[in-house]
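Let's practice the habit of predicting before peeking. Look at the sequence and jot down your guess about where helices and strands might fall. Then scroll down.
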Amino acid sequence: MKQSFLLTLLVFLLFSPAFIGAQATFTGGSPRTAFVNAAKGYLGTPYVSGGSSLRGMDCSGLVFRAAIDGPSRSVPRTVQALSDFAIHIPDQSMEPGDILFFNTIGRLSHVGIYLGNGKFIHAASAGPKTGVIISSLSENYWKRAYLFAGSILGSEPQTSWPHPDNVGNSNDELKPPIHPFQGDIGLRLNVTGGILWDFMPKEYPIRGGLAFAEITWAKNTSVYPGIGAGLSFDQRTESISIPFIASIAVPSGFRFFIGSQFHIKADSTLDKKIQFPGLIGLSWTSKPAVLFDQNFHFYQSAEYSWFPNETFGLGFRFNTGMTLSFDF
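Done guessing? Here is the structure:
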């Protein structure tokens, strides 16, 4: 009877929620060691905005969960609240288990856990690797984005913060851009080549091509203003033109542009005088793919090339192509 009871108890413990739950608890050692080990237990977890579990987590979610799993501390759930809560410390005093704050979109927006020797663990939403990864403060991007360090283990929390299972997607953490800036000066050069096409009835869908270069300001800002110029050929209007534009882009990759065009040649029935706006549109650029150490993006726009007194169908067109970007 006693053996049967012990066997039943063992089976119960092995298959109870404490053993098969989605989260793990890392105890033992100092609070800092427990905190760091708990965070390392989530290496490889995918990035999910608002998440704080093995199914996915964001940067503040990793700090939040590791603090509970390791030293059993309750800390704030968002980057800004963590910054307000932490005791700011000088860089030379950083120890493993401190937290690091970064500016990735022109303001405080990212947090990680310091591991020592210039390394930190964090949940990245963009870049060559995403999810919970280990990065170095010596990397150009993180060196520029770093703001300050703080300690959250030096004192007991003074506020009761919600348990992660009850947080859901209420996190107000700001998402970093799909293409973080990696230059020194602040300028990004985008060189784009694409095919012009449309769906107009009884017309051949491919109508020409466009190549242009654009320079934008992309450092420490949440919007990217830019100016650019290029060369286009449009067989529907029999035009060869030099477009010149001003633009505003946002971190998600969307961009609004407006400008004019100088028509080197065009159909004799069209008015070639410079108009404003002579070109207006909306574009989207994808997250970069690294090829031969260069950043390539898919580019798609819907735009209107305007000639006075002509129909909308003549000027409306799409541009599909690739963008090569360089940060300076």
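How did you do? The domain at 21-166 is CATH 3.90.1720.10 (endopeptidase fold (from Nostoc punctiforme)).
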